[in-house]
Fold these 3 entries.
Entry 1:
Amino acid sequence: GIGITPFRALLKDIHARDDRRPVTLIYGGKGGEYLFREEIDEIAEAMDSVQVHYVEGRKAIASTLMEAQTEHGNNARYYLSGLPVMIKAYEAQLLEGGVSKNRLMYD
């Protein structure tokens, strides 16, 4: 599958259950194309607890992830999905930044 699929399912589930826990989605894409963007935006608009950041390129993803990591640290769970090389890079970034391995989840 593609990296966004598990996040789409998660967002649909929390929306259906009206779960108001904060969720920040960092969605990396190419060429301004983001699959399911309309559906994701509808959920984010309906739920003020959902924030979505559309970014392009690995540097932009890493920078946005660092912002979230700085803000939330070990008070959040980090769900990583995508190409294995990217997951390893972002995992290393989070661990080097002080996030505990038990706060990381993978697809």
Entry 2:
Amino acid sequence: SSGINAEYGGPLDFPHSMEPQLRQLGLPTRLKDGVIVLDQEHTVCTAGKVLNTQQAVILKHLGNCMAEFQIELMSHWSNDVFTVLSESNSAMEINEPDSEDDDVIEDVNEN
């Protein structure tokens, strides 16, 4: 299975002062001539499995982004105009009326 592995004996690009913190996170590290190295190969995470806090912190330190972030814009407010985006990606604007009348709705796709 695929995942993120830290290689045995390979130097880790961290300041020597971080070695105790990395060891506390579960990495089998030691200092060798002032450089952090791994005492053995270590699997940080496995594809498809939920990460625990320690794994997430290790991945952050190693610079591996493992999350996807996605949003669906449903509406927005700009310059006193509230725009509602429908599921078909068309947009409707609700303008702030100057009077006490009902809201004015315009289909911005017709313009």
Entry 3:
Amino acid sequence: MKYKRTRGEVSNLSFQEALFSGFLSDGGILLPEIIPNVSTERLRSWRKLSYPDLAKRIIPLFVDETEIPPEDLNKLLDAAFSKFSRSEVAPIVSLNSGLNIMELFHGKTWSFKDLALSCIGQFLQYFLSQQNKHVTILVGTTGDTGSAAIEAVRGLSSVDMVVMYPDGRVSQVQEKQMTSVLDENVHVFNVEGNGDEIDVFIKPCFLDTAFAEKHNLCSINSINWARIMVQTVHYFYAYLALCNEECSDEVEVIIPTGACGNVTSGIVAKKMGLPVRLVCAVNANDIVHRMLSSGVFSVAQSLPTIAPAMDVQMPYNMERIWYLVSNGDTDLVSTLMCQFEQSHSLPLPPTLLDQVRQAISKSCVVPDDDIRQCLLDVWKRDSYLLCPHSATGVYFHNHHSFLPPEKCVVLATASVMKFEKTVVEAGVEFPLFEEVSSLMKLESRCLKMVKGEDWEQMLRKRIERITENIQTRNN
């Protein structure tokens, strides 16, 4: 398997090269040159597999065995999933209505980001240990990516991690999970801005090719292909748990959506032949819903909500989605992205819009008040606690779904343990979680990026200092 750029020109990249990349010099991002096909017969043979064993069937389709031999890859995946608190890794529970909830939050930092990032941490260490190489990873986060990324690489001598999160736009638990990690290779910045503003000053560091190569920069946001790759597994797992014995019927997967990394994984799975109907549930930051409804992809002001990981008004994975649904039309993607980056508003060509609507069947916007009401209703009816992001998916099912509940699954992307304030505001008594109490007692450390300062320059200086320290250590 080789990888290519969404905007053309660069191709024939290895998995290792894709893993260690960020934004490419023209702003493009990476996808496989060919999406592998999974036949119905093959699907049927996978029906009884555990989550880790299913991952061992799917991930090798994207990783050439000359890069990671099968035995080594299986060991890396076993090590990654051994960190989860449930042996099923991603258990599926049914509410009284019959609606299924796929709990993707049983990793170390209680969010679905642990699924992919625990694997990526293993992949990074595997390649870096072979080459005696060091990388600096840059991560902008609006919630869960930061803590999951930190957990995946903390303490590694071959990796430094720089994480930036928006001040006041993550929950106390999310913030504490980042700032309480005191390992020397972890550098956390609190930024007086929003998530989109953080992406704005990270991206030039990658686009400056000389700077990026000098400091061995890497990203493990959902810009990183390996994130998308690993996340395809939970679509197959959910489908196989809910489909008929022939694997011939359709299952609806409802996805709380922000930067569109998760739904991109779903589209990849669909392109592989998985019979899923994909739905995007968004909060007040509704660029995806507006695009699907009006045909115009346009940036609006980022609004703080009680589902902060979804507070995104510039979902960079949309570029991947256009590439996938247009069957790899790099000229089209390059033209559209150039137009969008200049104007921040883009009417989609009718053919492309139809293709996107075929890939994403439906969407809906769920305001904060409806999220709170959904949390309360599910607690009263099912004695089940949802996080605010997952509640957007349940809200969609309750108001818009066409399929019966037993053929629908909501991807529960984070544990309720992170969102005490929101749960209490919804009128639900928040239980005492010992894990949270222990976390909140830990010492914290972070640096500040204050509005008015040159954030890009501050980031570059931190990267340069990391490189200097590594060079001193190696001399």
